[in-house]
Fold:
Amino acid sequence: MASIRLERITKRFPGADAPAVDSVDLDIADGEFVILVGPSGCGKSTILRMIAGLEDITEGDLYIGDRRVNDLAPRDRNLAMVFQNYALYPHLSVYENIAFPLRLHKAPDEEVEERVRRSAQMLELEELLDRKPSQLSGGQRQRVAMGRALVRDADAYLFDEPLSNLDAKLRGQMRTEISRIQSQLGITTVYVTHDQIEAMTLGDRVAVLRKGVLQQVAPPRELYEQPVNLFVAGFIGSPPMNFMPATVSGTTLELPVGRMEISPDMANRVAGHEVLIAGIRPEHFEDANLLDEDRRRRGLVFSERIDVIEWLGSEQYAYIPFEAPEQVRRPLEELATELDSEQIRTQLVVTLDAESRVAEGEPADLWLDPSRMHLFDPESGENLTHGSGVDARTLASA
Amino acid sequence: MRSRRTTVLWALGGLAIVAYTILPVLWIVSLSFKEGDDINNRKFFPSEWSLDNYRTVFDTSLFTSALRNSVGISLIATVASVVLATLAAYAIARLEFKGKRWVLSTALAIAMFPTVALVGPLFDMWRSLGIYDTWLGLIIPYMSFTLPLAIWTLSAFFREIPWEMEQAAQVDGATPWQAFRKVIVPLAAPGVATASILVFFFAWNDFVFGISLTATDRARPVPAALAFFTGESFFEQPTAAISAAAVIVTIPVIVLVLIFQRRIVAGLTSGAVKG
Structure:
């Protein structure tokens, strides 16, 4: 096992203006599970391939343990990798596929036997060892690919979107499996995905990338509760965070759904910005009629007509359209294109308790928790309330 | 649903083609079993089946030495050509280098060059180089005419093999040579088989070089040697003996096709990557 350190890693592809990966700094501790996540084209796979040695590093230094490995061939880096399309050797049996790395290192037959059996047992592949990859289902192939990586004593394990070719149910199972094996073996793992749910559930820490630039590296919870900017806030979470235009005058914040007072500290932070983007997650709204008086008073109660309701059993989503001024609409549209989400209209998505009796097409009394609200600068996308939320939350729950 | 009539028409058409291609072959086989004057018996089958012609052919040193030459020259040319073509095709499929297009188009141009136009100059050159009437003197032209075709065939096969296969092997600890030998070559086996067959057939069936660049038993291959066949007596046409020789030289071709047919299994790579 070893740590991996990226120092100002940059990748430029010939013929491209912007670097694919732009000066990324990242420290991956020994035994840590780090996720690289971002929309397609953000450079996450390129980073992984640079770590593996399959892609040259244009600038910067890469260390595995204490060794600078920039100029080492992939085979000298002692890393194991699971490819997105599995890359199993079709002419070899499952057994030989898993044994392949050991055979290359000239391991004696007994050792090969023992280690292949052990890794096959861990992944429940024992009955499949004699088959050829073409006789396996997608999930089985995926497990063989993992077996081939785990059979080795590598310094670190790299996963390149290993679950993206599986169907939803299998993906969920394998996610749990990977998480179990990783914590059981305590192996240094770098995992690339575009799926924010995988990122949130698997990683010790998650690194969010956008256009080759590292946005934020933090544990999932911090990423969710304290996003540093509009991009991270919009990318992490499903359904996504709601963004509303907000104007501020003194300590009064004006939202499309009403006005509220903010703390002098907060007012200080946002001073100088006339128009802001307020971000609030769907679950920080509630049906006002279901709340006790005490909680109701602490938030902002407003009445809006509900457009559509989606009832899911455990909870329900309500959609409320609103008009956004040009100044705010532009950055939000940009964000939507970047995240590949086709946002047709500006609307609020609120998660309500399944008990709630609000009805489609009728006005409803809703409540929002201002302590959970983020304020973003529409120009830079920066989260102006970043770092203050902890205090606000303790206040709210007190 | 296809109508009955079209099915019948298709079957008839197919039969006609099969008959058209197989009848001459059967005719030669039948001739080779006819003894002496029996070739004039005006029947398809011999009056009496006889192995005499085969005995005659194998007793003729002209034929046995030609057979030895043919087998040796064709095999050496095939192995050398396929090994070189595999390496070249791999480089062409995987590496970006200057003049790649130039190499490919030149190769194609060579393959299209008429052989007869080269025979004269080669004859002169080989004589001054001292490789006239030697195995090498035939292997070189065979290789240069089959390499382009083999390179084109193989590079098409290599291009089909996903890059990830090789990258996976490299991450697993393989040197580029190991990745090539243990992963790429086995995966390209159908392509290698196809190229081998093409090269072998070219060398095995060649007549122009065989007759022009040889003078004696030292290097003369079977197709050229058949032209020197004579009958039992001067007045007798050696038709039956030539037929027997023709059948004998056809056998390796059939065997080869049968062996390689198994290796040319479509979908060998299925299951390598997501299907």
